[in-house]
Each structure stands twice: as C-alpha cells, then as structure tokens.
Amino acid sequence: MTFPQALPSPRTPDSRDAPPLRWAIMGPGWIAEQFVASLQAHTTQVVAAVGSRSLDRAQAFASRHDIATAVGSYDELVALDDVDVVYVATPHPSHLEHAVMSMEAGKHVLVEKPIAISADQARQIAAVAARTGQFCAEALWTLFLPKWDVLRQVLDAGGLGELRSVHTVYGEHFPDGHRIFDPALAGGPLLDLGTYPLAYVTSLLGPARSVAAAGVPDVRGVNGQLGATMLHDGGTMSVVATTLHGWPRNEITIIGSEGVATVEALHNSPGPITITSADRGVTLTYDEPHGDQVGGLHFQAAEAARRIAAGERETPIRLLSASIISLEASDEIRRQVGISFAEAGLDEHG
Ligand SMILES: NC(=O)c1ccc[n+]([C@@H]2O[C@H](COP(=O)([O-])OP(=O)(O)OC[C@H]3O[C@@H](n4cnc5c(N)ncnc54)[C@H](OP(=O)(O)O)[C@@H]3O)[C@@H](O)[C@H]2O)c1
Q1: Ligand 1 atom 2 nearest Cα
Q2: Which of 80, 121, 162, 185 is the most exposed place for a label (fewest CB within 10 A)?
Q3: Ligand 1 pocket check for 179: Cβ under 6 Å
Q4: Ligand 1 pocket, 242 CB below 6 A?
Q5: CA of 90 to the centre of ligand 1 (A)
Q6: Where are the domains of the chain?
C-alpha cells in the first residue's frame, strides 16, 4: 500500500523572495490587468513598461497600474533598454510573432497560454529561444501553483500507485462579442480553455499516442464544443472535453491503482485537492483556499525571475518540449474535428 498517511507541504517558494526583474507588458488586455495586479500584490517584481498598438491604451493602463513607461507600439516596447523580460499577453495567433520579436531584441519572454496555435509554431519559438539564449516559457499558470506541487509530490512518491486515467473538462459561458467567437483569433474553446486539460493530461501521462475526437460547431462560426479520448504510454488513457456553452463542474479526476485524486473546481485556479484511497477508507485534503488569477498568476512570474536570475533558459515546471507535446495533441484533435485556422486566414505553420 503506497497511499500516503498525510499530504506533503508545497515546496513553492514565497514569490516575494524572487529576484526583482523589470517586466514589460505586451498587450494591455484582460489577462494583463490580472497579471500586473498579481505581481504588484504578491511580488517585488517591477512592472517597468507597457506597450499597446495604441499609445492611449498604453497610457491608460500605465496610469491604472502606476507603470513608468508607456509606448504605442510593440516594436518600441521590445527595444526599451530598461526591460529584462516581456510578458506576451496578446491573442494566441500573435504569440509566435511577439515572442520571437522580443527574444530577437534580447529580452526574455513569458508567453500567455497557449504558447502558439500549433505545435509547428511552438517549435519555431523553441528554436529562436535556443538560438538567442533567452529564457522562454508558456504561462501555464496552474502548473506553478502550490497545489500542483503537492499533487506532483504525491504522484512522484507513487501515492496513487500506478496511474490509470485522467478525466477532465473545462467549460465556461461567454457573452456574444467575446474574442472566443472570432475565427481570426483562433476562436473556439480548444485553445482558450482546452489548453488546460491538454496540459494536465500530457504532463501527468505523457504524449497522446492516439486520439479519438469529435466536436460540434457553434452557430457563431467557430467550434462550440468537443471531446477527446486519448491513449498514452503504459496502458493509460485520458478523457477531456471543452465547451463555450456553459460552466460544468470543472474538476480533474486522476485515477490510480491505489487511489483517486480530485483537483476541485475551478481546477486552473488556487483551490483544494482531495485524494481518496482505492477502498475509499481514507481521504486526505490539501486545503488551499479557493482563489482567482490575481492570487495565483504571480507564482509563474516569480519562477521565471528565479530561473532568469540564475542564468537558466527554461523552467522544469513548463518546458517548451511540454508545450509542444500539448499542441501536438491539440493539432490532432483539430484535424479530426475539422477545425481549420487556414480558413480564417491564419498560418499555423508560419
Ligand atoms: N492565464 C489565464 O488565466 C488567461 C486568461 C485569459 C486569457 N489568457 C490568454 O491571454 C491571451 C490574451 O487574452 P485576453 O483575454 O487578455 O484578451 P484581450 O482582453 O482581448 O487582450 C488582448 C490584447 O492584445 C492586444 N492585441 C494585439 N493584437 C490583437 C488583435 N489582433 N486583436 C485583439 N487584440 C490584440 C490588444 O491590446 P492593444 O491593441 O492595446 O495592444 C488586447 O488588449 C490569450 O492568448 C489567452 O489565451 C490567459
């Protein structure tokens, strides 16, 4: 019996102890607001500059967050001298261009999820990171949360025995007019929401070796919902689903020979994890309070700052190779469901 008697404590360091770097915010949209609020509340990181396609929007964001420098183009932003790392928070079809221009300008990058719209694009980002020697990581913030470190320790110690399967869903409701309905921004739930389930299952079980996917279009012109069953090495499997039609109970269930772990809803945010022995005789809970992005986005920034200050080019929490593996599964799901970015004028290979 390997089922633990108690849960480990998270090893996640205090974000305030990370060396303070100078951050530039590229794309002052919704998530950038949460990211800056999280940094300013929970770290000693310096938000030094913000860049927008519009100087007015950059200045408005800068005055809301007390940021010294606001510029009206991304070219000007990456050329600034007093910046160490760029946080790319533009829509996902632009991540390749914006990550590459930042690294070519000598800046490290933390790129919002998904790091790109296809595995091909992610490979290009990884190649530029290797050539320029800049730090580069996908801001898959959930994997940087203390709760994920607790889960990792339980699994690494064999606490659930041999893993059998992972089941997870991510759905939300979006108002008409949200960018998720825009095909030109690679809309639909797969990349915005499905990125999380795909990251979970591939980081827990490894690459998808086979995929069986199906989906249904939304009347507004993008895919509306889809599901996939995937086989991974060692006789394991995952079942994932994503929808833009509403809020299911967004949990992760991880089934092993000795027990079951449940990452409670909302799985991508701070919150509790419960593990129950296979015979259901013992239940242990890691009681992280439910939180939001502002309470959790800072962990990835602190990790990036620590790695950059140490001269490292990646974080083991989200290697570029792991982002590529997620996107390979995403590419195959899209192929089977018939989601074409080319129809919307997007070049997923360039
Ligand atoms: N980690 C999380 O929890 C989380 C949550 C939400 C979103 N995200 C990710 O963050 C990225 C941005 O999402 P968001 O919800 O913040 O989007 P958003 O509110 O629309 O903001 C995106 C920003 O990018 C800039 N931009 C550059 N090119 C653009 C274009 N062609 N169309 C529209 N905006 C463009 C815009 O700023 P300017 O025009 O002023 O430069 C805009 O404010 C996405 O990749 C998404 O997947 C992550």
Answers
A1: 31
A2: 162
A3: yes
A4: no
A5: 4
A6: 15-140, 143-344
Over the stretch 305-334, which tens digit does the pLDDT of each residue have?
Answer: 999 999 999 999 999 999 999 999 999 999
Residue 224 has pLDDT above 90, yes or no: yes
User: 244 and 188 in contact (C-beta within 8 Å)?
Assistant: yes
Non-local CB neighbours of 230 within 8 Å, separated by 6+ positions: 201, 208, 209, 210, 211, 212, 237, 238, 239, 240, 329
- Distance (angstroms) between ligand 1 centre and the Cα of 292 equals 18
Q: Please tell me the distance from the alpha carbon of residue 215 to that of residue 219, in angstroms, as a whole number.
A: 13
Q: Is the pLDDT of residue 1 over 70?
A: no
Using the predicted structure, report yes or no on whether residue 94 has a pLDDT greater than 80.
yes
CATH number of 143-344: 3.30.360.10
Nearest atom in ligand 1 to 35's CA? 1
Q: Give the residue whose CA is nearest to atom 7 of ligand 1.
A: 31
| DSSP, res 350 | -
| C-alpha 246 to ligand 1 mean position (Å) | 21
Query: Is the minimum distance from the CB of 91 to ligand 1 under 6 angstroms?
Result: yes
Q: What is the mean pLDDT of residues 84-101?
A: 98
The average pLDDT across 292-301 equals 96
Q: Which residue of 26, 31, 39, 140 sits with most ligand 1 atoms within 8 Å of its CB, as the best mutation to test the pocket? A: 31
Q: Which atom of ligand 1 is nearest to the CA of 93?
A: 45
- For residue 66, the CA-to-ligand 1 centroid distance in Å is 20
What's residue 2's pLDDT?
86
Sequence-ordered strand ranges (E) for the chain: 22-26, 46-51, 69-71, 85-88, 108-112, 136-139, 163-171, 210-217, 223-232, 236-243, 252-256, 259-263, 273-277, 283-286
Strands (E) in 9-162, as ranges, are 22-26, 46-51, 69-71, 85-88, 108-112, 136-139
Q: Tens of pLDDT along 260-271?
A: 999 999 999 999
**Secondary-structure class of domain 15-140 per CATH:** alpha beta
What is the distance between the alpha carbons of residues 269 and 117, in angstroms, rounded to a whole number?
23
Q: Estimate the crossing angle of helix 298-309 against helix 30-42, to 10 degrees.
A: 70
